[in-house]
Write a structure and sequence with these properties.
Number of helices: 11
Order of helices and strands: HEEHEHHEHEEHEHEHEHEEHH
Distance between the termini: 69 Å
Structural class: alpha/beta
Shape: rod-shaped
Number of strands: 11
Length: about 270
């Protein structure tokens, strides 16, 4: 059955008995039989073989598209407007693959999770470092949110009009850094009155008339009734991309999910508008 010689089997068993310090088989005229301790050890050996078989099956599932998992890290606006559509498309084709999602506040923490191997796919801002292989998903423009009482008529606000409002911006980088780079371009002095972590809080503050908010379009959605949208005096855009660790071995499920993510960005922008 093993397709090896009887002497090789005897030698292997004798070696095992010497290592364990017990007799596993009793030998007599009626053949060889397991000793009581041999029976107990054989039960453990069968469990080991079952575990080895299970390990092999898990590895085969991970290498195929019949099982396994995909771990994704993203920020809130992606989780809200991009991922649901991508996951729905992915689950239609691969219902047995688990999708695990973790939300992070900053792209730096998402990229670190990719480096540390905690996630397979991360959504970030482009461009990023060469250690990642990336694909552009969408370009999300920054918009100005004005209170319901605003009397700005033009679709694009002027620097002079913007200077009359206290500004409410995100306290998280790189959004905060990008907005601050635009301030020196202003033809009139601008002041940041509030720096807030949560996008929804910024929208609510604008709705209450506390100032004008600057947010990416996806982050601002859904816009509550009364809040007015205007273009900034100069365009400001964030490029959202999806990234995996370059020069690493990735399961087929990872690439299958990347395929599902493609073209979801334009639908997300339309929905936000």
């Amino acid at each position: 059955q093993l397709e090896i010689s009887q002497s090789a089997v005897s030698h292997a068993i004798a070696t095992l008995e010497a290592q364990l310090g017990v007799v596993l088989l009793s030998r007599g005229r009626q053949g060889a039989h397991l000793t009581p301790v041999g029976q107990r050890i054989t039960a453990h050996a069968r469990q080991v073989l079952q575990l080895l078989e299970a390990m092999e099956k898990e590895a085969q599932l991970e290498k195929s598209l019949q099982g396994g998992s995909v771990r994704i890290a993203c920020f809130r606006s992606v989780a809200t407007h991009i991922l649901p559509n991508a996951i729905a498309r992915f689950r239609q084709r691969y219902p047995n693959i688990t999708v695990n999602i973790s939300e992070d506040e900053t792209v730096s923490s998402i990229e670190q999770a990719l480096r540390d191997g905690y996630v397979d796919i991360g959504f970030t801002y482009l461009p990023t470092s060469d250690e990642f292989e990336t694909w552009e998903i969408l370009r999300d423009d920054y918009i100005l949110l004005l209170p319901p009482t605003s009397d700005v008529k033009s679709p694009r606000i002027s620097w002079q009009e913007l200077a009359t409002y206290p500004l409410i911006v995100s306290s998280l980088n790189p959004c905060n850094a990008w907005i601050r780079k635009c301030l020196p371009l202003a033809e009139y002095p601008l002041s940041i009155a509030y720096e807030i972590r949560e996008d929804s809080t910024i929208v609510s503050m604008v709705q209450q008339g506390l100032g004008a908010g600057i947010l990416p379009r996806l982050a601002a959605a859904p816009i509550p009734p009364g809040v007015q949208l205007r273009h900034l005096p100069v365009p400001l855009i964030r490029v959202i991309g999806v990234a995996i660790l370059a020069n690493a071995l990735h399961a087929p499920a990872v690439y299958a999910f990347l395929d599902a993510v493609r073209n979801t960005g334009r639908f997300a922008v339309k929905a936000a508008v």
